[in-house]
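Narrative of accomplishments. A recurring question from our advisory board has been how the design workflow behaves on a single, concrete structure rather than in aggregate. To address it, we present the structure tokens for one chain from the evaluation set, followed by the sequence designed for it. No filtering or post-editing was applied between the two.
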């Protein structure tokens, strides 16, 4: 088990990639803190984790609220004495073309996807720095590298996450903290599964291997980067996209 006895915080863990990551980490021996907005939204993933006898702490957290993030970190440290891994997975979309995008939708996505990553990263990094070790993993996107029609706000945040990742890797490396980002491509989540089949077929056609990713594909990448097997890897953006951008 590559994450045995590691303590990992996973934001946006109620569903999709966050849920898959929590389960993957638990199967690899980690003690997991799952956070999302509303404890009721975490009930299913907590039950799934308990079915595999995982040690789990559920936290109701809006990542934009620093006080809530601080409380989550304090609870994790109070329960297990440390934080080894932070997976900054929480994120939202509010898509629209530039000429039609309301300012409030731009601000909302910036706050969650960028300030939320900053809040969690800074607060967790202080604990890791005191311990002299840790791993921070940030969710970017191929959209953040290449842009996408109708996603000015989302693309800006995911590009910003890459900038933070590389900056933190430079700043925190001397503290024993590795920082990397993962850039998913088209992933089958509860949200994308509701799309028309012709749209899904179009997304598949863009991949040389003709596949859409699964949340588990991203979880596997996070687990590797969180483990000691990746001890010499920091400051990278790992694209997990089925070659969609080739």
């Amino acid at each position: 088990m590559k994450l045995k006895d590691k303590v990992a915080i996973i934001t946006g863990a109620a569903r999709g990639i966050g849920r898959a990551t929590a389960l993957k980490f638990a199967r690899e021996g980690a003690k997991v803190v799952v956070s999302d907005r509303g404890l009721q939204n975490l009930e299913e993933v907590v039950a799934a984790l308990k079915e595999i006898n995982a040690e789990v702490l559920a936290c109701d957290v809006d990542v934009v609220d620093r006080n809530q993030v601080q409380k989550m970190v304090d609870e994790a440290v109070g329960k297990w004495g440390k934080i080894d891994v932070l997976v900054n997975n929480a994120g939202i979309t509010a898509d629209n073309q530039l000429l039609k995008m309301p300012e409030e939708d731009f601000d909302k996505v910036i706050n969650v996807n960028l300030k939320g990553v900053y809040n969690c990263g800074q607060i967790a990094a202080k604990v890791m720095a005191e311990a002299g070790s840790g791993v921070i993993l940030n969710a970017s996107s191929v959209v953040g590298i290449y842009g996408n029609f109708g996603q000015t706000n989302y693309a800006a945040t995911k590009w910003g996450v890459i900038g933070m990742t590389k900056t933190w890797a430079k700043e925190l490396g001397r503290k024993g903290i590795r920082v990397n980002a993962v850039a998913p491509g088209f992933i089958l989540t509860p949200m994308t599964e509701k799309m028309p089949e012709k749209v899904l077929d179009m997304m598949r056609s863009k991949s040389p291997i003709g596949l859409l990713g699964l949340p588990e594909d991203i979880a596997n990448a996070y687990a590797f980067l969180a483990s000691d097997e990746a001890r010499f890897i920091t400051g990278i953006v790992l694209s997990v996209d089925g070659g969609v951008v080739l």
